[in-house]
Amino acid sequence: MSIKQRQFYRQGPDHRAGQEIDFVEVRRRFDFRSIELGRWVTKQERSRAAGLFYDALCDLMLILQGPEQLVSLRGTLGLQYGTGGRPGVSAHYDPSRRAFALAKNAGPGSIAHEWFHALDHYLSDKVFTDAPSGLFASAAWLDDATPVVHPLNDLWFALMKAILLDESGREPSELFNHSVNMDRKLRTRYYSRPEEVCARAFEAFVQDANVKNHFLVKGTRESPEAQNGLYPRDDERQRINQAFADYFYRLGAALSRQT
Is the same domain home to 38 and 125? Predict the structure, then answer.
């Protein structure tokens, strides 16, 4: 079904004040490096998608308690809609281009996941001194890369520990173990990659916020993946959510002071 015919549940403030939003305004508001639209995206689909993206990104900004430059990663992030995708994949982040792409009709609901990939990649050379180019910060943490000493980075490391290790800090987390088990079942290595585990944990954090937006995120509680333990559950979910809240509160405050 085309995006112009679909409805996406949302509970949150009115960001548009009755104004028509286009992708020029999305780029201007958030200072994305670039926005690319596919040649097969119709004028009606483009208009509908622009408003949905605008609301989703404004909602994300509220949830993270940060300014627009956090959403665009200081203007370094590119956005693609209906182009730049991969066959059979509804959404993905491309580290080589520092851009995330959503398929025209299958991508909605994936923004939070792909945005966290972008943040994870962006932070790699800011929280570690020797992370190889292209490596995600979550993977660098698991590889014991050399950290950059900074209070914000300490909160990032605490977040990684909350997601990837159990409460004792000595064993893998339940989330990580479920991810490994799924990969064994499928004979692949995807779900247990640290960047994927962390992106799914971020989805859960965003979906649990008071602001609800299914164009931004959905499926962390009732989907087949959730039923298989691929999203945090119960006490582990609360602990991870708190670590996310601690990190983004401090990050958002630091960025807001700079604007």
Answer: no
Would you say the C-alpha torsion 93, 237, 255, 125 has a positive or negative sign?
negative
3 in a domain, yes or no? no
**Quick one: 31 and 92 in the same domain?**
yes
User: Which tokens hold the place of 152?
Assistant: 């914000």
- Cα Rg of the chain, angstroms: 18
Q: What does 126-183 look like in DSSP terms, one character per residue?
A: HHBSSPPTT--HHHHHHTTPPBPP-HHHHHHHHHHHHHHB-TTSSSB-HHHHHHHHHH
Nearest to 55 by CA among 237, 258, 214: 214
If one counts every other C-beta atom within 10 angstroms of the C-beta of residue 38, the result is 16
Model pLDDT for residues 156-203, shown as the tens digit of each residue = 999 999 999 999 999 999 999 999 999 999 999 999 999 999 999 999
CA distances from 257 to 71, 127, 250, 251, 252 (A): 16, 20, 11, 10, 9
Q: Indicate if 90 and 129 belong to the same structural domain.
A: no
- What the block records as the tokens of 121 is 């990649």
Convert the pLDDT of each residue in 49-69 to its tens digit: 999 999 999 999 999 999 999
Here the tokens at position 197 are 């585990």
Q: Residue written as tokens 């004792």?
A: 168
User: Cα separation of 238 and 60, whole Å?
Assistant: 19
Q: Which of 71, 89, 107 delimits the end of a domain?
A: 107
- Centroid of chain to Cα 2: 24
d(CA 204, CA 219): 9
What residues pair up with 213 in beta bridges, in sequence order? 10
Residue 134 and residue 63 share a domain: no
Gap between the Cα atoms of 229 and 224, Å rounded: 9
